[in-house]
Amino acid sequence: MPWASLPPKAAPKPVRPNPLLTPTKSIHQHPNPRLFVTDVSAEATRAEMSTARLPLAYRDTCAHLLIPLNKCRYENYYMPFRCVDERHGYEKCQYEEFLLRVKKMDEIRDSKGGERSN
Questions:
Q1: Residues in the chain where the model's pLDDT stays below 70
Q2: What is the pLDDT of residue 27?
Q3: How far apart are CA 67 and CA 54, in angstroms?
Q4: How many other CB atoms sit within 10 Å of the CB of residue 23?
Q5: What is the per-residue pLDDT for 6?
Q6: Which end of the chain is more exposed for a tag (fewer CB within 10 A), N or C?
Q7: What is the longest distance spanned by two Cα atoms in the chain?
Q8: How many structural domains are present in the chain?
């Protein structure tokens, strides 16, 4: 080791993993992953969405994740490698909402005997 000859105070300390940063359980191992990521009680109010100046097209059930994402993007000058966790959470919420819409449409189609509405 190159620092073996240095005095003890100058030698770097060994890096230990932080237990707060290393997840013990994956999101996919959670019994209900949808509630783990997007809590229904965490929805943004209309006042919060208008204060954050969200466009009308983005004011949906995932807006409570988009508000901190946009704030993070603004504070970090829209650098693509920043705010990755916020973006992942928002995109996962959007995907879950898409799956719910598809499931609901399949239920409607099944109730009509398989006929398409368009």
A1: 1-41, 118
A2: 47
A3: 8
A4: 9
A5: 58
A6: C
A7: 80
A8: 1
User: Which pTM does this prediction carry?
Assistant: 0.63
For residues 35, 37, 38 and 44, what is the CA-based torsion angle, rounded to 10 degrees? 140
* CA 26 to mean position of chain CA atoms: 14
Q: Tell whether 61 is covered by a domain.
A: yes
Give a yes or no: residue 57 inside a domain: yes
Does some domain include residue 92?
Answer: yes
Which residues touch 37 (CB under 8 Å, ≥6 apart)? 27, 89, 92, 93, 96
Which tens digit of pLDDT belongs to each residue from 90-112? Answer: 999 999 999 999 999 999 999 98
- As a whole number of angstroms, the distance between CA 70 and CA 86 comes to 9
Residue whose tokens read 């080791």: 1
Asked whether residue 16 is domain-assigned, the answer is: no
